[in-house]
Amino acid sequence: MIFDLIQKRRSIFPAQYNTDPIDKQDIEKILEAANWAPSHKKTEPWRFKVVQGEAKDRLGEFLSAKYQELDPNPKQVKIKKLMENPKKSGAVIAICMQRDPNESVPEWEEISAVAMAVQNMWLCCTEMGIGAYWSSPGLIKHMGEFFEMAEGEKCLGFFYMGHFDGEWPEQPRGPISDKTVWLD
To answer: Is residue 178 part of a domain?
Structure first.
């Protein structure tokens, strides 16, 4: 049931992943789920760059080096995390947005459509037993130096994915009644 899947979705972090690879067919299914997200005026602004194999090492090296270049007091733990997270993942998908060149809808609507595409990916991963995590470090604004980006395209984060051992984490939520105002 969809409600059970929504409740089960969690962030599963790269440190929790095992070394099992993610099959290309599974990644294609996850991306196909993303492609069915809604978008105003059917702009379909989501764009994805799948990083696997040695490219994961290059991504980690780039992120680590860029962080050290930009931060006057880089922290060793962050340097290591930026380097290792891609390596630990079965795949990393750069989440990008291609802005409608006519700007026929507000940018926030395009960003929201990409977020809905990512939610579809996350739910698909949950159903398939693949851990996933959306990271949006400040370094994403420099991803045009790593990826070839189209005019008007920008990176909104990384979707780390990996198989993992163990149980899905529990995470209770506060009651929706505390977050809702009813007007009659």
So the answer is: no
Alpha helices in the chain (DSSP H): 2-8, 24-34, 54-70, 76-88, 107-128
Range of the domain at 70: 10-167
Does residue 174 sit within a domain? no
Question: Parallel, antiparallel, or unpaired: how do β-strands 153-162 and 131-135 relate?
Answer: antiparallel
| Phi, psi of 65, deg, nearest 5 | -65, -40
Paired tokens of 98: 């291609």
Q: Does residue 179 form part of some domain?
A: no
Burial 14-30 (b: 16+ CB within 10 A, else e): bebbeeeebeeebbeeb
- The one-character DSSP state at 176 is G
Chain mean position to CA 71:
24
Task: Convert the pLDDT of each residue in 115-155 to its tens digit.
Answer: 999 999 999 999 999 999 999 999 999 999 999 999 999 99
CA dihedral of 123, 118, 49, 88, whole degrees rounded to 10: -60
Q: Which residue has the tokens 């990512």?
A: 118
Task: Work out the average pLDDT over 60-79.
Answer: 95
CA distance 1 to 39: 24
